[in-house]
Amino acid sequence: MKKILLAVSAMTLLMTGMAHAQAETPAIDQRQANQEQRIDRGVASGQLNEREANRLNKQQEHINKMEDRATSDGIVTKKERARIGAAQTRTSRHIAREKHDRQGKRHR
Fold this sequence. Notes:
There is one protein chain. The protein has 108 residues and is an all-alpha fold. It has one domain. It contains four helices and no strands. The model has no long low-confidence stretch (mean pLDDT 86).
């Protein structure tokens, strides 16, 4: 009886660990951190004005919410990863465009 109980407990722990591992999104998290740093550096350098930075930060918040919804059930599917990746790519393009437009801090 003890062996069966031990085996069931071990399997439960193993399955829980596998589900948790599937819900982790280190690549998404790293890309989010990189994009947030790009926004912060843009503000510091004057390439982004406050309005642009706020808009980009809202896009980042939207992606974070997408990720939270995807991980809520413990598994992030390929489709969910693809949607999050597409949103991150879109935001990355927006960051680049805003940083290299002629707005922001005016140089004299």
